[in-house]
TrEMBL record:
Spans annotated as Disordered: 71-105, 122-142
Pfam families: PNPOx_N
Residue ranges of every copy of the Pyridoxamine 5'-phosphate oxidase N-terminal domain listed in the record: 9-70
The organism of origin for this protein: Micromonospora globbae
Name of the protein described by the UniProt record: Pyridoxamine 5'-phosphate oxidase family protein
Amino acid sequence: MAEEPEFAERVRARFAVRKHGTMATLRRDGSPRISGTEFDFDDGDLRLGSMAGAVKALDLRRDPRVALHCPTEDAPADDPSAWDGDAKISGIAHEEPPGEDGSHRFRIELTEVVLTRVGDPPDHLVIESWHPGRGLRRRQRR
């Protein structure tokens, strides 16, 4: 997303509102697993980790597809347009060398990034999505 620095910064800001977000992985039988996790944006790369032997890390070793959702923050009831939005990232997890404590570490190769927010006036949603090779697109939903 280096070619869209303003969009990337707004996405990073949504992930930074709290320490823990949500991660979806695939279990051995193909059903989804939802886990809490921490994210780190490091030199333009998105990374995440987990404790040694965590099932979410074992899921990623078996099937590296992953979806991430930023921490959620509510809009003021009297002003829905003040909501800064919601960010989602899909990607492929690439395992990196473990930490000294045996913890798992993954770098996420981005395959989709979506930022959704209330428009102005607040009668529609603004949905921005970025895909490698396709770039940034913006649409509205009423």
